[in-house]
Structures are given as structure tokens and as C-alpha cells.
Amino acid sequence: MHLDHDHIGGHGHEHTHSHTHEHTHDGVTHSHSHDHAHTHEHGHPHDHDHLHDHGHAHDHSHECGGDCGGCQSGCVHTPMEELLALMKYMVGHNTSHANELAQLAVQFQKAGNAMAYEQVMAAVSDFEKGNMRLSAILASLEG
Amino acid sequence: MCLSTVYKNEKVEQNVAMRNVMQIECKDGCVILTDLMDRTMAIEGQLVSANLVDGFVIVKEN
Question: pTM here?
Fold first, then answer.
């Protein structure tokens, strides 16, 4: 990805190095170092930290592993926003799973197994009740 | 369907690249991850495996 920075010298090979550069994401500009392999021309193999300008926008690995809890990078999302986003996703996801289970129950019914149909539908009902509770919590947190 | 955790090279905690990944795209030698908050990350390497039941993905980093 980073083939457009300058080095003095004469031979090319692939290697891994770490460097630091400024970039912007989520509306916030910051810099931090990362490691990656690439090929470019330079005079000697080395590890270095340097600042340079990229001619293109890109995204790259965060050493924080995507966990913003201890991140100092100034990401725009607060931990609470992330929790709410995850909750919202889970509620929607559970709804999808409940629907899938209900369809599964219908398959049992079509196969002539009324007991399995009823039991799975009862489980779906319980599942939906739990999800409604989650939804209520989410609404109160968002309110 | 479910969110996944992406690991670099091996499924060990210290190799977590990104959690709550909702989209993976392989492009130009990079595996591009997008999480629930729409953050993206590109790992130079290849997709090795995706376990969609247990929700984890292994990416081999170059």
C-alpha cells in the first residue's frame, strides 16, 4: 500500500518496517506507528521511524486491536456509543434469529412434528421476551 | 450474519486485529476490515480462514 514514499538508493526488495505518519479517520487527524511489509527502492535494509506524506487515502492496522478503551488517538466514538451500537446490533440480530427459529419451527410443522413446532415456537416466544427487555434497556439508554 | 473477531496469523488474544467486524473485503493484497462503528483497517496479507459459527477469522499478515 505504501509504495509512494521516497528513499535514496538503488535496489528493491520486500521487507517489513515500522513507520509513523499522520492520517485522518472519523474526522480526526492523528499519527501513530505501524508495521507492514512492502517493496521499495532504497540503499540499505533498515528499520526506521519517519513521517511522510501519502499520495492516497488509506486505512491501516490499529495496534489497539479495535478496542477503544485505552486508545488515546482521539476517535470520535465514546465507549458508551460503542456499547449502544453493539446493543442495537444485538437486538436486531436477535430479532433475525427469532425469525429464523420461527421458520425452522414451521419446517417441523410441515414435517408433521407438531410437538417440535410448539416447543420451538415457545422458545421463540421466550427469546422475543428477552429481546424486548434488551430493547427496552436500549431505549432507556438512548433516551 | 454474526460479527466476528479477526486475528492476525493465529487465534490468540494478543493477535486480535479487530473485534465486532461486520465486513471483510480482499483487495489489492490487503484484507480490509470494517467494524460495527464503521472503522476500517487494512492488513496486508491474505484471508486464511473464517469460522462463521464461532465468529472468528484468521488473516495471514505479510
Answer: 0.62
